[in-house]
Amino acid sequence: MTNTPQQELKYKIIQQASNGWFLIDEQAQNLTKGQCDRMLKRYVRDGENPNDLKAVLQDDVRFPTAPKTDKGWLPTNLL
Asked: pLDDT of 11-30, one tens digit each?
């Protein structure tokens, strides 16, 4: 990815799980550097292990973000 001086890099925060690295939260993507730093500090303050968190570029091919999936149909009239 080539960036012009006017183009600001965007980041996302991923978390290591037993089966790989995944986006920690839907809001933890398309972040500026400052937003990313603040969110990382908040996750650590809220109890996340800092060794399991990583900030990467939004379009880093090593860590693709899976598209948001529909949760499917949920029954509402069970009784």
From this structure: 999 999 999 999 999 999 99
Give the chain as a 3 state SS string.
CCCCCCCCCCEEEEEEECCEEEECCCCCCCECHHHHHHHHHHHHHCCCCHHHEEEEECCCCCCCCCCCCCCCCCCCCCC
Beta bridge partners, 15, equal 22, 53
Write out the two tokens for 71.
């949760």
Give, in degrees to the nearest 5, the angle at Cα 43 between 56 and 11. Answer: 20
Question: What is the residue whose two structure tokens read 């993507």?
Answer: 29
Per-residue pLDDT tens digits for 24-52? 999 999 999 999 999 999 999 999 999 99
Name the pTM for this structure.
0.77
